[in-house]
Amino acid sequence: MSAKIRLYVEHPLAPGQPVPLSRDHAHYLFGVMRLDAGAPVALFNGRDGEWLAHVTEAGKRGGTLVCEAQTRPLQLPPDLWLLFAPIKKARTDFIVEKAAEMGAARILPVQTDFTNSERIRQDRLQAHAIEAAEQCGGTFVPEVADLQKLSRLLDHWPADRQLMFCDEAEAGSALRLASEGRNKPWAILIGPEGGFSEAERKRLHAMEQSHVVSLGPRILRADTAAVASMTLWQQALGDWG
Ligand code: SAM
């Protein structure tokens, strides 16, 4: 019997491996979904691929699943980071969810000169990334980093990581995303509602790794820009082709 429910767990997954359930997972499986002993569940932990498991103990506050066989190997996304300036809560949640679905390897919220929010709930955003992977059949979960200053991140920018700098000041100019960048580590940078400051723009244009990109003739909202830029990158250089 194949499993209809997919869960992300922290536990290692291997043949015959018992997997203890958290209180929340037990509530979901046995309270909400009304599963009983013997029911199949698909498990993944972001490292060991996807596994078919069966319920062996079902309780109100806990329970156990036992892994049977791997159903899919681990599928890693391309080495793509998404850097974005957090905006309003629902739109930030949307960016994290879509980045996880579309194949980002790491998600890095950054504080730019015109970023409004000073804090994020990293744990909540990480939970959104996990939920997105559960829903879309992913076997990998991108790490959501804590909020950090863009300037500090650029101070230590890896020499080989290419940067797709989505600059609203380039709106309308031709798209530039060279295919020789294939097989290199990359990052995409999306700015906040207020866009980039002139100082940031100057620094980003001067970076050797920077590829300045237009997302068309219209100014997009940051959440739309995140999805549009990931689509372009995945199509040109990622694992969609
Ligand atoms: N307030 C800014 C303005 O009016 O110019 C717009 C900022 S836009 C809402 C947020 C971010 O989305 C920008 O910083 C940029 O990274 C990206 N973006 C939006 N439209 C773009 C475009 N046409 N070309 C390149 N980047 C774009």
UniProtKB/TrEMBL annotation:
EC number(s) from the headed UniProt entry: 2.1.1.193
Record-linked CDD domains: RsmE-like (cd18084)
Top-level EC class as recorded in UniProt: transferase
GO biological process: methylation
Predominant location: cytoplasm
The Ribosomal RNA small subunit methyltransferase E methyltransferase domain, residue ranges: 77-234
Subcellular location per the Swiss-Prot or TrEMBL entry: Cytoplasm
Domain Ribosomal RNA small subunit methyltransferase E PUA-like: 23-62
Recorded catalytic activity of this chain's protein: uridine(1498) in 16S rRNA + S-adenosyl-L-methionine = N(3)-methyluridine(1498) in 16S rRNA + S-adenosyl-L-homocysteine + H(+)
Pfam families hit by this protein: Methyltrans_RNA (PF04452), PUA_4 (PF20260)
Keywords of the record: Cytoplasm, Methyltransferase, rRNA processing, S-adenosyl-L-methionine, Transferase
A single MF term (Gene Ontology): methyltransferase activity
NCBIfam families: PRK11713.3-5, RsmE family RNA methyltransferase
Described purpose of this protein according to its UniProt entry: Specifically methylates the N3 position of the uracil ring of uridine 1498 (m3U1498) in 16S rRNA. Acts on the fully assembled 30S ribosomal subunit.
Family statement: Belongs to the RNA methyltransferase RsmE family.
Protein name: Ribosomal RNA small subunit methyltransferase E
Organism (species): Ruegeria aquimaris
